[in-house]
Amino acid sequence: MTILQHSADAPSPRGDGVDMRAPSGAPPVVWRRLEGLADYAATVSAMESLATAIGAGVSPETVWLLEHPPVYTAGTSAREGDLLDTRFPVHRAGRGGQFTYHGPGQRVAYVMLDLSRRRPDVRAFVGALEDWLIAALAEVGVEGERRADRVGVWVARPDKPAGVADAPAEDKIAALGVRLKRWVSFHGVALNVAPDLSHFAGIAPCGVRTPHWGVTSLADLGVAADMSTIDAALRRRFEAIFGPTVDG
Question: Over the range 80-89, which residues count as b (16 or more CB within 10 Å of their CB) and which as e?
């Protein structure tokens, strides 16, 4: 997925290893894990309200970890032809990007940070989110990679047939789609832990139709990591890039 708002004329490259921590003495980021399946529309509404409050300085920066019931969401660049099967509800999301799927077994992290206090550079922020996911995946033995022309985190699949001109097969394991309003971020990332991958067949995920680019998950890769293990890795690696957190 892509982003909704671009930064300055000469943005930093993605994945430059930038430290995105807030200034010394800033409050920690509230880290909250929501149990059960969170209704998509209600969650987005609450997230937008919280992002506004963060921008006004009346609420702390926050990360929500959650799962949604099966749903397709369309970003601002979504093409109608990429919705192939309306088996699940479809929501128009204000984030950047195209169509994606959310559902049980996928860890969604909504990241609400005030970049004006950190680094007001959208491209650097997206790179930091990718760095975060790649580092968390490394903790469970998976080598995640970024691609210069595609936002998200990918894994090489040498076990699958190559594509045109022997292009290597690879699958997306994590998607990114963010929005910024007055430099406060919302929406975020989605990491496939153990979702039903057949549910992605109803869309062209993030507009991808190339046969040798698919979608995978930790379970599909043979990694038996439960959600609590992934959450712990995500928190450790988040703090290394974005700074301390506190339970919410």
Answer: eebbeeeebe
